[in-house]
């Protein structure tokens, strides 16, 4: 059922006719991967955002104005993201714009002529590189550096001071890799070896064998999910019980499919939201209840992140109708609570949340927090 619904969502987002928007409608647009390499992440993120907007519209919207949420599939490709954003801005006349997945897509949108001309701010992309503070971007999630720092802190408590690095050189991973090197230097971490994920299969195999022989305390992957899965499958033949760590933007469904169930044991991932499957805070409970009410698919970290990002978005809006030249968002001084979690506490930061946790990929294909 979920797969059928996701396919329908992707098709709908591409074929949706441009509407004449009523004065009592707030139009929100988003270009995101719904059918490409990170489609599972994108569809879940959209499901969480849409669920919160459905809740809000059922209650009458924002001061009587309902939210119209337009989603376009960019397939995870920068050029398609730029094209989709241009359509949302120039033809759909969106008043607000949520971001997509990955730093290559995010940078392409920020640098596009249509986006620059729009005067909009790109809100809550699933990316984490460091951007200039004057860039028109506002993140909901923490940065790569915060995630990497938390992973290092976790293993430091176990007394581990040597690591292996798996790196796929690309525009999407360059910032994360630099943040990793900076954190290693800051933490006094010893490098046991590096695997460069290139097109040379023999070289990858040789470097993987050398890394396994070095017996690092843990291995951290800076790579897209497909390349990480290929590495993990090979590495586990040689080092079945070495911890391997990844970021919150790893597509766990795809990783397991590529590497196999045994290979993903002893893997851990940073997470930027609390456990989505329990109701230990009010936003977790609200997310669980509303997903059951409005969706027929399981909850995930991404549905919770989308739900939380949408709820935060509402709190940042200017009161009343925005006038020309007025900024879209105002972050309350000292931050604000969204149901057990504080947002916007770091003054001057373009990352609203500082929350990072770590979870173990378990045998049941889920995460143990």
TrEMBL record:
Membrane spanning stretches: none
UniProt xrefs under Pfam families: Peripla_BP_6
Top-rank taxon: Bacteria
Annotated ranges, domain Leucine-binding protein: 25-318
Gene3D superfamilies reported for this sequence: 3.40.50.2300
Keywords attached to this entry: Signal
InterPro entries: Leu-bd, Peripla_BP_I
Signal peptide: 1-22
Family that this chain belongs to: Belongs to the leucine-binding protein family.
Name the UniProt record assigns to this protein: Periplasmic binding domain protein
């Amino acid at each position: 059922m979920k797969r059928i619904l996701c396919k329908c969502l992707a098709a709908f987002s591409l074929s949706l006719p441009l509407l004449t928007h009523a004065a009592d409608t707030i139009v929100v647009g988003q270009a995101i991967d719904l059918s490409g390499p990170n489609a599972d992440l994108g569809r879940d993120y959209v499901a969480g955002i849409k669920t919160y907007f459905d809740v809000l519209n059922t209650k009458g919207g924002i001061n009587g104005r309902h939210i119209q949420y337009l989603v376009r599939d960019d397939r995870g490709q920068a050029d398609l993201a730029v094209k989709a954003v241009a359509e949302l801005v120039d033809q759909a006349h969106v008043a607000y714009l949520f971001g997509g997945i990955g730093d290559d897509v995010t940078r392409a949108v920020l640098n596009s002529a249509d986006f620059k001309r729009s005067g909009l701010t790109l809100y809550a992309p699933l990316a984490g590189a460091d951007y200039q503070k004057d860039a028109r971007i506002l993140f909901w999630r923490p940065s790569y550096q915060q995630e990497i720092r938390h992973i290092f802190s976790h293993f430091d408590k176990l007394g581990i001071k040597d690591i292996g690095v798996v790196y796929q050189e690309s525009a999407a991973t360059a910032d994360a890799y630099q943040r990793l090197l900076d954190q290693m230097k800051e933490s006094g971490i010893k490098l046991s070896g590096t695997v460069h994920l290139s097109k040379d299969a023999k070289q990858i195999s040789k470097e993987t064998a050398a890394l396994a022989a070095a017996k690092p305390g843990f291995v951290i992957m800076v790579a897209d999910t497909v390349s990480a899965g290929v590495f993990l499958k090979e590495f586990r033949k040689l080092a079945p019980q070495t911890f391997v760590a990844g970021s919150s933007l790893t597509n766990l469904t795809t990783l397991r499919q590529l590497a196999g169930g045994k290979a993903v044991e002893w893997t851990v991932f940073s997470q930027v939201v609390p456990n989505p499957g329990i109701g230990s805070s009010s936003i977790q409970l609200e997310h669980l209840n509303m997903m059951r009410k409005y969706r027929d698919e399981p909850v995930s970290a991404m549905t919770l992140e989308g739900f939380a990002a949408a709820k935060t978005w509402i709190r940042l809006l200017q009161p009343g109708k925005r006038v020309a030249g007025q900024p879209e968002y105002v972050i309350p001084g000292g931050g604000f609570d969204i149901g057990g979690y504080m947002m916007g506490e770091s003054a001057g930061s373009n990352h609203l949340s500082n929350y990072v946790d770590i979870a173990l990929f378990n045998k049941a294909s889920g995460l143990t927090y």
